[in-house]
């Protein structure tokens, strides 16, 4: 578990992840609305070179970023509006994974995850801070924790 005292700590964790993430990785972000999933993704994207604030892809569902916008291709996915896991197949995430880092919010709506998925669950504490719990696959063991 990692304690995240505030938004700055969540952004910093995202930046730390950017130092160790690479194309072909999947980072799944779980947690209630307002838990900090998009904030963590924004910290990661900013550290990869994105100059403007990354929008939440809730309505677009899939938001790609490519070189030179980011250091390497990144696809930010928000599955909140997906009701049927079969709809996820139509997004073509398997193809994107070939050369992109996938950041997936609301991964539980996908019905399945890839074996190389770093699963990060964010929850709020009574004092408004966040706690992050990680499920770390073998492909991430040498890179976790990133800070």
UniProtKB/TrEMBL annotation:
Keywords per UniProt: ATP-binding, Cytoplasm, Magnesium, Metal-binding, Nucleotide-binding, tRNA processing
Protein's cellular compartments: Cytoplasm
Pfam families (alphabetical): TsaE
Cross-referenced PANTHER family: TRNA THREONYLCARBAMOYLADENOSINE BIOSYNTHESIS PROTEIN TSAE (PTHR33540:SF2)
NCBIfam families in the cross-refs: T6A_YjeE
Family, per entry: Belongs to the TsaE family.
Protein name stated in the entry: tRNA threonylcarbamoyladenosine biosynthesis protein TsaE
Species of provenance: Sphingomonas colocasiae
The encoding gene: tsaE
